Amino acid sequence: MAVSLTALLGGCGQPEFTDVEKRTIALMSLSALAPLPPDPTNRFADDPGAAALGATLFFDTGMSRDGNVACGTCHKIDRQFQDDLPRGIGVAETNRRTMPLAGVARDPFFFWDGRRDSLWSQALVPLENPLEHAGTRTSYAHYIKRRFGERYERIFRPLPDLTGLPANAGPFGAPSERAAWAAMTEKQRDGVDLVFADIGKAMAAFERSLVHMPTRFDRFADALARGTAPAGDAALSEEEEAGLRLFIGKASCSTCHTGPRFTDNHFHNTGVPPVVGLPVDRGRIAVVDEVRADPFNCLGKFRDGDEEACGELRFMQKSSPELIRAYKTPSLRGVAGRAPYMHAGQFATLEQVVDHYAKAAASIEGETEIHPLQLSDRERAALVAFLKTLSD
Fold this sequence. Notes:
With 392 residues, this protein is an all-alpha fold.
């Protein structure tokens, strides 16, 4: 006879979780999330004026080469600040899935591969990416002066003299644009870079306001921590409770999807298959040198504060085989509402994701960290049911 869900849970009524399980579940509730720490590398991080300007820039399609793309084009405000597409589409289709932004200010590294080390330096990358906003640094400096000059100077500092600077010049872009950038003086480049860094710091100030909201799981976890029987909108079904037990137990999901945000903020090779037709994507190992060389990183001259804030960058893993085909552990909060899944939208449903982790196929390069799981169809369904409690 098949074991019932009630038997799996050890009875009915108040869930009979062990003390260890209760402590684990309590630490996964949003109630356990510490206050957002300050960002010493961005002295404007909690400046309301900078955040307001950042919000304006975030939704401004003028912040792109063709005037049609804003950050909000892919990070849609009504879709958890993502876009429901396998790969984001800016000026052209990108090679990666758009990540949601709730809680993003708590990450130590950014993007699927961690190629930037601060929220403000992350905000700058899409602006120059030829597949996303496709703009140039001088074009953004001119745009800020033309549209937001007084507002910028009220928040940050006087704008540099942009007289005579090329309309489009930068270290990326077309050969002519790179040549125009190289022809500028160091003082001119530094002035433009400072405005560019301030753009990122303003958008980061806005993005710090994007937070996770409590879900049914949080109400369940809080009731359990208080020692009261979860009821009403704090109750989970037997199937959902079974999925929770599997998540923190047999299935080992909480090894990486841990804490109140359901992420360890690290990078892992889990054998996710590549997408046919896309360029080779080696994950974290391919960007270690890039994040260290970024002029806007924590050790660069555009950082506010001192180097004490740069521990993550100084002591990050640089050459471990574990970084091959490794991608960031995404937060699972709201996961049921943002298919498809993985770094390039490889899986269309949560059922396919669970199936991938249960089978644990070998990675095409490097070593996968996951191992096959013997999960019944009922257990797989229970895991998916639990994951849906992380959405409200």
